[in-house]
Specification:
The chain is an alpha+beta fold. Helix content is 31%, strand content 22%. Strands 8-9-10-1-11-19-12 form a seven-stranded mixed sheet. The protein has a six-stranded mixed sheet with strand order 14-18-13-17-15-16.
Length: 532
């Protein structure tokens, strides 16, 4: 186990290059990679509890999983800790063979017992991401029997019922599927928390890096795991600085205070366009911006009104004028990059068609409605553009800007009318989004499961049943076809207006390269970064 220093000592060690003041002619140390990024979403770095963007990204570099998505083609799966695996003919039993050379940062070998403990831990803790594992019928009562080590290098998972084979495998690629060192975690547990308090600010993984320190809303520092058995990074430490303002990130990049700027906006990207000193690497993320129309509202519940709104919006203009380079127009609930995603664009601004649909719905003169949205960029500007587009067909939209947490709280209480939100896939299987955007088996206020459909009080039995069937379809090609049909029906019937898909544009100075940004945060890798 790598020795951990106190947060105070760590802060002193890195203070010479994490200062927020720009320094002329400064440069990051050659053996250190420094990134500027918004990281104030971190609540914990325990992989079986963390469910935020930054926590998942850090987990991807500190921990390994049994399987991961192929960086070159995310629709394919590669083994990481598992060198191979078999699935029984009935689709219920998965047997993973652990690589014998894998080691934790402590130097101890990774075993099937560690893998079994990690998956069991996700179920037993039952934190926010735990549903990714428990949705397979694994419970606190049965997980010890159904997830077990057969021997030192063989793990067996027995599911109560069959699902599409790739479904479980893709779920295991998520951060909650990270493998932790059982002995170290249990040695640091308190009051039966399975090491949760300790793992909040420490790590026990086998990835290329190990957590050195986390200073909330300031920095995260990672050290090289010298016991890592794969290709090691060509540097000793990575520091991720909290820099919420894109303009500050660009200034720090110009001053050589950071090697990578992770959140530049359209204005900053335009400012460096064509400048050979900077290198950008646009990457599509499995993250969408959409509008939810609450079906408790008597007018929004009319199918023709929902379609009128979709035909009133100028998607291309929003992309060109507001979100150039950071979001592109997209109109299906599966983002590009997920298996089966539709990338065609059937909707465009058509005022005459939209007004005809309003007349068909019995509101030819339009109506007044409110829309909650995040007040920051780019959502604030997108909301204003939508307000103008809907005014063209007689819909007066009152914009209610605020913090994203307040908007999420409001939609979870089903008290919004319209709300513009962001959704990121939890894993790269189509079910991640289909479950959220399509399924609603109980629309009552007391429902146990409350996906996005429930939050907007929408229930379509045919669409819900199709989604539930698709996740259990064992034929891969047939399953993809089912999701494609589901997306087309969803466009025609749902109260969700899918607007945009995120593009992350990590930007470095010339001579710095190799950051891999995955479609999901828990597949982003730092270890390939090279500073020449």
């Amino acid at each position: 186990m790598l020795k951990r220093r106190t947060l105070l000592t760590s802060a002193a060690v890195i203070s010479t290059y994490i200062s927020t003041r720009p320094r002329a002619n400064a440069a990051t140390p050659r053996n250190v990679v420094v990134m500027g990024k918004q990281i104030d979403d971190v609540i914990t770095l325990d992989p079986q509890e963390s469910f935020e963007y930054t926590g998942a990204e850090i987990g991807s570099n500190v921990y390994q999983k049994l399987v991961i998505a192929d960086p070159a083609a995310p629709s394919r799966l590669n083994g990481e800790l598992a060198e191979r695996w078999e699935i029984s003919p009935d689709g219920k039993t998965y047997t993973f063979h652990i690589r014998p050379d894998a080691k934790f940062a402590s130097g101890k070998p990774v075993t099937a017992e560690d893998a079994a403990f990690s998956i069991q831990r996700a179920v037993l803790l039952d934190k926010a991401p735990g549903f990714i594992i428990t949705q397979f019928g694994l419970t606190k009562d049965n997980v010890a029997e159904r997830v077990k080590a057969v021997d030192a290098h063989t793990l067996r998972i027995e599911l109560p019922e069959a699902f599409a084979p790739t479904f479980l495998l893709y779920c295991l690629t998520s951060n909650v599927g990270s493998i932790v060192e059982k002995a170290t975690v249990l040695a640091n547990q308190k009051d039966g928390d399975l090491g949760g308090a300790w793992l909040k600010t420490n790590s026990a993984g086998s990835g290329p890096l190990a957590l050195r320190s986390w200073l909330a809303s300031e920095s995260i520092s990672l050290d090289l795991n010298r016991n890592f058995t794969g290709t090691k990074p060509a540097w000793n430490r990575c520091v991720v600085r909290h820099m919420p303002e894109p303009s500050a990130q660009l200034l720090a990049l110009r001053q050589r205070d950071i090697d990578y700027a992770r959140n530049l906006g359209p204005d900053q990207l335009r400012a460096i366009a064509g400048n050979a000193e900077f290198v950008t690497a646009p990457t599509k993320r499995a993250s969408l911006i959409y509008i939810a129309l609450n079906q408790k509202h008597p007018i929004l519940s009319r199918p023709a009104v929902r379609q009128a709104i979709k035909w009133a919006i100028n998607y291309e203009a929003i992309e060109k004028n507001i979100t150039a380079n950071i979001y592109h127009a997209h109109q299906a609930f599966l983002p590009a990059g997920l298996p089966g995603a539709l990338t065609d664009m059937p909707f465009k601004k058509d005022v005459a068609r939209a007004m005809a649909l309003l007349a068909e719905a019995g509101v030819p003169d339009g109506f007044e409605i409110s829309m909650d949205h995040f007040s920051g960029a780019p959502q604030g500007d997108i909301a204003q553009a939508i307000q103008a587009d809907l005014m063209d067909i007689g819909i007066k939209v009152n914009l209610l800007g605020g913090e994203m947490r307040a908007i999420i709280t409001k939609t979870r209480a089903r008290t919004h009318e319209m709300a513009m939100l962001r959704w990121a896939s939890d894993y790269l299987d189509p079910n991640s989004n289909a479950q959220a955007f399509c399924e609603n088996t109980d629309n009552s206020d007391s429902a146990a499961i409350k996906p996005l459909t429930w939050r907007s009080s929408w229930q379509d039995k045919e669409i819900s049943d199709m989604s539930l069937a698709a996740v259990r379809e064992l034929d891969g090609d047939k399953r993809i076809a089912m999701y494609q049909q589901l997306q087309r029906l969803h466009r025609d019937r749902s109260p969700f207006v899918i607007l945009l898909q995120e593009i992350e544009v990590p930007t470095s100075r010339r001579g710095v390269s190799g950051l891999y940004v995955g479609a999901t945060s828990d597949s982003t890798q730092y270890s390939g970064i090279i500073k020449s």
